[in-house]
Amino acid sequence: MERPTPTVSPVGAVLAAAADRVDSLPHARMGRVDVHLALRDASPSYELTQAALDRLAAHLHETGVDDRWLHQWTPRCGRSDVAAYLRAAAEVIA
Question: What's this model's pTM, rounded to 2 decimal places?
Fold first, then answer.
């Protein structure tokens, strides 16, 4: 019997692809612009980019992570932390 193929939501796929893009960047600290660019590069449409950003923000809020760096000009967040947040948000909705 064949195992079913897991499906990934379009938003989850964008978040996972953005995490890979963030992980490949050379700088150690990330700001909101870096995250927004990674999401835009990973997404085929504005609507999907916005949905992924909304999901990431909601995930950070739900888990109690300080998300000011995502919305404001504040000190940057570590690259590996940002990639982990993106992957965790993708897994929540996959």
Answer: 0.84
